[in-house]
Design a protein that fits this description.
Elements lengths: L10 H7 L1 H8 L5 H7 L2 H35 L7 H41 L1
Helix pairs in contact: 1-4, 3-5, 4-5
């Protein structure tokens, strides 16, 4: 069974540090039962917590980015960053966040399925 390293409390960094476990979760060649055998309920809980934490962080980033764009518009000629630069930055950040959200959703979906399998085997 894999043992996760929670050195960085939450989010994408912890998932990257535990790429082996994430690889097991996302491996389409393994059944849910095989994945459950390889990853403990505690480690799944940590992965799910990381996904939820990252989701919150990404939402905060997008909300703040929206506020910055509004503030930039109101600064006019005083702004040190041009609107073109802000739009380019926001597009890049939005693309990055979209990709992370997609990956987090896949990890979360598989981790939840494995967690349900763990729960069903405990009841038996």
């Amino acid at each position: 069974m894999t043992k996760l390293s929670p050195q960085l409390a939450d989010g994408a960094a912890t998932l990257l540090l535990n790429a082996q476990a994430v690889g097991i979760i996302r491996n389409p060649d393994l059944s849910i039962a095989e994945k459950a055998r390889l990853i403990s309920p505690e480690d799944l809980a940590l992965l799910l917590h990381c996904c939820e934490s990252e989701d919150y962080i990404l939402q905060e980033l997008l909300q703040t980015l929206g506020k910055l764009l509004i503030e930039r518009e109101n600064l006019g000629g005083v702004a040190t960053v041009s609107m073109a630069e802000m739009l380019s930055f926001s597009g890049s950040l939005n693309t990055l966040i979209g990709g992370l959200w997609y990956c987090m959703a896949e990890i979360r979906q598989q981790a939840l399925a494995i967690s349900l399998y763990h729960a069903s085997t405990i009841k038996q």
